[in-house]
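Troubleshooting log. The previous run stalled partway through. Resubmitting the same two chains, unchanged.
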Amino acid sequence: NAGVTQTPKFQVLKTGQSMTLQCAQDMNHNSMYWYRQDPGMGLRLIYYSASEGTTDKGEVPNGYNVSRLNKREFSLRLESAAPSQTSVYFCASSEGRGSNQPQHFGDGTRLSIL
Amino acid sequence: AQKVTQAQTEISVVEKEDVTLDCVYETRDTTYYLFWYKQPPSGELVFLIRRNSFDEQNEISGRYSWNFQKSTSSFNFTITASQVVDSAVYFCALKNYGQNFVFGPGTRLSVLP
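Second attempt completed without errors. Output:
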């Protein structure tokens, strides 16, 4: 089973460029999440989608947009990349907010903004 | 409000030593879930264990054990006879019913040969 698949794994951008991080899950999960991980900061929630058709801001949404394309796919877009967005990005999915089941994570995207 | 504290930023032990990673949580809800994840140097996040708030039984899985104490709002993780492969960042997480996960800042464990 693939679980949660993120693409790309690595990306280097110049300041001001845009890009979209892709995420897909094959576990029929309702909820999907985007986190960023910075040294010493743990995982910070950027946006989440509690169910297909809904998206909500997390702890650090500024500079990002998301799209829940369908139940499987949840993309994260950087419209105008800034060096402060250099980070490792993780997509995750779970059965739903009312569930006690764990989140499952993708392998991460290492993004550098020059 | 939900909060998870992992006071130990980094721990170093020598192989075969026992080590305990602390996790203290805050929540006003009576129904909640606690999790531990492992992030090895390769970077992926691996789910280790889940505990429900109404189940205070401790759990042992091989060299790993977890001590859940509601009285002190703690969910500590002990590795017995540590090995180099245990070197990783370990995250504790809390989820209230119907809400999102909240992660602690993580504890970096280095097991030296």
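Takeaways: Residues 24 and 74 of chain B are 4 Å apart (CA to CA). Chain B has a mean pLDDT of 94.
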